[in-house]
Amino acid sequence: xALLRIEYTKTGLLRYLGHLDMVRLFxxxxxxxxxxxxxxxxxxxxxxxxxxxxxxxGYSSExxxxxxxxxxxxxxxxxxxVFQTCFPAEVAYRRHRLxxxxxxxxxxxxxxxxxxxxxxxxxxxxxxxxxxxxLPGLVSLTAIKKSKGKKDKEIELxxxxxxxxxxxxxxxxxxxxxxxxxxxxxxxxxxxLFATLDAGSESNLKPDLLMAAIASSIGLEGEAPLxxxxxxxxxxxGKALFEME
Length: 245
Description:
Blueprint: E1 2-10, H1 19-32, E2 49-51, E3 60-70, H2 79-86, E4 93-99, H3 105-108, E5 111-121, H4 125-133, E6 142-145, E7 153-156, E8 161-178, E9 183-198, H5 207-217, E10 226-234
């Protein structure tokens, strides 16, 4: 048995593909590429494919990780060709390595880096900038986390935010938005941010929950669209997850 850790991208329209569909995409793509996958035992055997952390629908990424178990002796240098010929261009190969049998990627994961683009109404833009820059000085920042089948829970976000930095305040633009009454034009500014947040099985903070809490703190009502692009995954001590055993 050989364990391959693969880094790949998820971009374009495929950012709207859910996790279960991604699992099926990988299974079909690897089978089409004639990769000799190993299967689980039991009545319903399935390929041994494990992802680091499911990416929320609508998020894009340049640093997703998956591990697959294959038969010993397979020429793993064929992987790049398999991706080029059997996967959509939006799910692109970046690199891979052979690893020893290890803990699951999810259990090793601790942090994620993100690039965020937050479209804020022009009237609230300066308040949003001040809230972002003032976050390190806050004693507390909370949000209500909703879970299916469970009661809503108030959680403390501040310890899960390791960095939130404003990179650029874009020019004001006018966009059309549709309300229940009519289509209207709204002036917005785009704030480009960099964030490092808790991620993994022990503690996990999604960027949209963080930005919704910041919006609430400045009294921003209605939708403030957020685009999320994940750029890196880390384990304990800030070590690149791709390199960990």
